C-alpha cells in the first residue's frame, strides 16, 4: 500500500476544508475494482461539494469528484480486467463514496461503464455527468413521444455544462433549439453549437403567470425555481419538459394549469442511480451523436492542481461549457 495525490475534504471544529493531500491507499473504501484515474471533470455538484455551500458530502473525510475515467489496475470481478478503460458517473461518488479527484479509486464493478468505442477518456470526461444528463433528458423526451415536428425546444442554463451539451444534442436530433442564458456574449458560441435562437434568462427567471403564450413543445431545464415554472407555463399542448438541475433553486413556484389545461408533462431526470441498461444506452448515443468538433469547442482542459479553483468558479457562473481535469 502506498499514497496517491487527491483532494480531501474534512469537516471539524476548525471548519470545512478542501485541500490537496497525499491520500493513503489503505483508506480507500470497499470495492472489487481498483482504477488508475486519468481524467475527471468539474460539475456544479462538485462546486457545491468543494465549497461546502450545500450538504453534498455525506461522510468525512471525502474525496470529491462525481466522475472519473481511467484504466483498471486490479479487479476481483470477471466483468473487468487490468488494462480495461472505464468511466464512472454517479452512484454516490464524491458524496458517500470516495470520488474521482484522485489518482486512484476503488469502486464496485456494477458502477463502472466500459469506455464507449469512439471516445477517448478525455472526451468521456468532456461529456461527463453533465453531458450524460443532457442525453438522459433527450432520451426521456423521445420516450415520451414529443418530436421536432411539434415545435421548438427550450434549453435553460444553456451556457453551462448540461445546457451546452443539450443544445448540441437537440440540434443534432432535428430540433429548433432556443437557448436561454444569462451570458448574451455567448450567443455566437451557442449558435455554433446548434441554437437557432438565444434569449436572455431574465425572460424566465422572475415570477410569472400560471399560463403564458405557447412557445415551445419541449424543454431541458437545469435551473429549477421560477425558470422551470415559466418554461412549463409556456410549453405547448401535449409538450414535455425534462427537469435535471437546480441552479436557481430547488423550489418550483408553479401551478397545475399547464398540466391540466395543456396536458404538459414534467419528466424527472436522475443521473446518480440510473439503471445500467439506460446508462449504457445513453453513453452509446453520446458516442454516436455528439460531434467531436462541437464537443471540443465547448471544452476547456485544466491540470489537476487547478481543480479547486475551477470548482468554486462554476458556482459563480463564469465557466462556459465543460471542464476536463487531467489527473495524470
Summarize this structure briefly.
Helices cover 30% and strands 28% of the residues.
SSE blueprint and pairings:
Elements lengths: L2 E10 L2 E10 L8 E9 L2 H8 L15 E9 L9 E5 L14 E4 L5 E2 L6 H24 L8 E3 L5 H12 L4 E5 L5 H7 L1 E6 L1 H4 L10 E6 L3 H9 L1 E9 L13 H5 L3 E4 L7 H14 L2 H6 L1 E5 L3 H9 L6 E5 L2
Parallel strand pairs: 8-9, 8-11, 9-10, 11-12, 12-13, 14-15
Antiparallel strand pairs: 1-2, 3-4, 3-6, 3-15, 4-5, 5-7
Structural account:
The protein has 328 residues and is of the alpha/beta class. It has 2 domains: 3-115 and 298-326, Alpha-Beta Complex (Quinone Oxidoreductase, Chain A, domain 1); 129-268, NAD(P)-binding Rossmann-like Domain (Rossmann fold), CATH 3.40.50.720. The chain has 10 helices and 15 strands. Strands 3, 4, 5, 6, 7, 14 and 15 form a 7-stranded mixed β-sheet that branches. α6 links the parallel β11 (216-221) and β12. The protein is globular and about 65 Å long. The mean pLDDT is 96.
Low-confidence stretches: none
The count of β-strands is: 15
How would you characterize the largest beta sheet? 7 strands, mixed
CATH class of the largest domain, anyone?
A: Alpha Beta
Shape: globular
Span between N and C termini?
Answer: 19 Å
What structural class do helix, strand and pairing data support?
Answer: alpha/beta
Judging by the overall fold, what is the CATH architecture of the largest domain? Alpha-Beta Complex
Helix content: 25-40%
How confident overall, as mean pLDDT? 96
Number of helices: 10
Strand and helix order: EEEHEEEEHEHEHEHEHEHEHHEHE
